[in-house]
Automatic annotation (TrEMBL):
Pfam families per the UniProt record, alphabetical: MarR_2 (PF12802)
Phylogenetic placement of the source organism: Bacteria, Pseudomonadati, Pseudomonadota, Gammaproteobacteria, Lysobacterales
Originating organism: Luteibacter jiangsuensis
Record-given protein name: MarR family transcriptional regulator
SMART domains: HTH_MARR (SM00347)
Domain HTH marR-type residue range list: 14-145
Keywords: DNA-binding, Transcription, Transcription regulation
Length: 151
């Protein structure tokens, strides 16, 4: 009975840790994005997906982002009008087009990342003691491992 109670307590502690971690990470991400003016949007998420996954059709983008084809077509058209992506004929299916990140799109993503990094750097410098900075550094491999969750 004591072993069963211990396992239940362990499960409760893990559930509480998971809740607290999700809340802390979400709050942290929102604060950094707010402080740097780099809020998530359909456009920024589409640019990020194109950078991570490479060129793809509007249909593939819509599927990966969980939006309708029509919505994604509008997002890609706006990104193209802003010079952040270009659309080319799909060599595998000449009826469809492939969206590709342009150098300007890459630069826009990099500027946003640099702004967020600078904001985090300043917060670490101002708010954390050297010992706390060490603790944070030691936690990074754990966070990286948790980021490897299967889809």
């Amino acid at each position: 009975m004591k072993v069963l109670m211990s396992k239940m307590e362990d499960q409760e502690a893990i559930a509480e840790l998971a809740h607290d971690l999700r809340r802390s990470v979400s709050t942290f991400v929102r604060a950094v994005r707010h402080n740097t003016g780099t809020q998530r949007s359909a456009q920024s998420e589409t640019l990020d997906l194109l950078q991570r996954a490479g060129p793809m059709s509007v249909a593939s983008l819509a599927s990966r982002r969980g939006v309708t084809h029509q919505t994604m077509r509008l997002v890609v058209a706006q990104l193209e009008a802003n010079g952040l992506v270009r659309q080319e004929t799909n060599p595998m299916d000449r009826r469809s087009r492939i969206a590709t990140l342009t150098p300007a799109g890459n630069d826009a993503l990099e500027r946003e990342r640099e702004a967020r990094t600078a904001s985090i750097k300043e917060a670490i410098r101002r708010l954390l003691s050297p010992q706390e900075q060490g603790t944070l550094r030691a936690a990074l491999p754990l966070l990286d491992r948790l980021s490897q969750l299967p889809d």
